[in-house]
């Protein structure tokens, strides 16, 4: 028995030596061909566009998503894009979309990608996007009457490529992005409401962007219109705030502050309504309220009676609100501010007949306010 045990040990040692000898002659590439644990991860490419803040925001989402789904690795491909490029009237994003279209042509499209505003139908017609409805139904149980090809994240639409090898994981990613975004909005909104509730009003909303935002939010809260609270989003420019209806790709109303090129001093504030929303009563009611908040935010020292007088002098009847006075020329002056309206390139007859659907996209009705210390005689009239 002892000799037999010695023989078995001897044979095992010979076999081990043989294995080591064969391994020493194998090429390194062969030895490395077996995937490691990390190689087993599903890799999802996400292509998008935006500036530095957008890229940093998406990095935060990437890390949190990978913590929740450790079997997935997200590869970000964010194309640097200026705000001006994102405002092309065609919706086409130079650079970014050229890259995306080339990837699709080469059958190497990203798993998830940003779909520029107003261009979803083009990608759907080209069968470049997957219908997300089956995934939404599986996760949330809410069957929709029609297909769903993109999920909104603020002003950005996210879609899953029809060329992806991992459709479910890609859906999980855009669903995670959307939920993360909503939580971010809730947090920002709550902070804005908390700050506004203190009613720490500046003397003028044109002192700075922060002064305007604080004054606006204070009056929005006071008027029980928390839905009109202003907050900043990662992809938004610093002096712009927009409002949009659910599932709409564009802002129906937006506020802009123009500043001096040599300093941060605010030159003027503008509130705009996209003209093709003129027959939407919900939008009009919001816009009417926003005009009052806007005037108060610019000059927080005004009384309610003074605000009403400025609105009346501009030609508006708040009881029977109409967009026609935006066509009036001339200004109203009050307490060191000049108030004027604009309806540039909009046919006054279309406004009068309320045929807003005939008005070109991107045209808007605007109320502009700027500081004016010189005493001037107010005048308002309709153009001839």
Could you walk me through the main structural features you see in this protein, from its secondary elements to its overall organization?
The structure is a single chain. The chain has 384 residues and is of the alpha+beta class. It has two domains: 41-184, D-Maltodextrin-Binding Protein, domain 2; 197-371, no CATH class. It has helices at 2-25, 28-31, 52-68, 96-105, 120-125, 133-140, 167-196, 209-222, 281-298, 304-313, 348-352, and strands at 42-50, 72-80, 112-115, 150-153, 156-160, 240-243, 253-259, 266-274, 331-334, 337-342, 364-371. Strand 7 (253-259) and strand 8 (266-274) form a beta hairpin. The longest helix is centred in the middle third of the chain and has 30 residues, at 167-196. Residues 4-38 have low confidence and may be disordered.
Concise description?
The protein has helices at 2-25, 28-31, 52-68, 96-105, 120-125, 133-140, 167-196, 209-222, 281-298, 304-313, 348-352; strands spanning 42-50, 72-80, 112-115, 150-153, 156-160, 240-243, 253-259, 266-274, 331-334, 337-342, 364-371. The protein has 384 residues and is α+β, with helices and mostly antiparallel strands.
Question: So how many helices?
Answer: 11
- Output the radius of gyration: 29 Å
Low-confidence stretches: 4-38
How far is the first residue's CA from the last residue's CA? Answer: 120 Å
Shape: elongated
Whole-number total of structural domains: 2
The secondary-structure class comes to alpha+beta
Strand order of the largest sheet: 6-7-8-11-10-9
Strand content: 15-25%
Q: Whole-number average pLDDT?
A: 81
Order of helices and strands: HHEHEHEHHEEHHEEEHHEEHE
Largest sheet: 6 strands, antiparallel
Q: Helix amount, in percent?
A: 25-40%
Query: What is the strand tally?
Result: 11
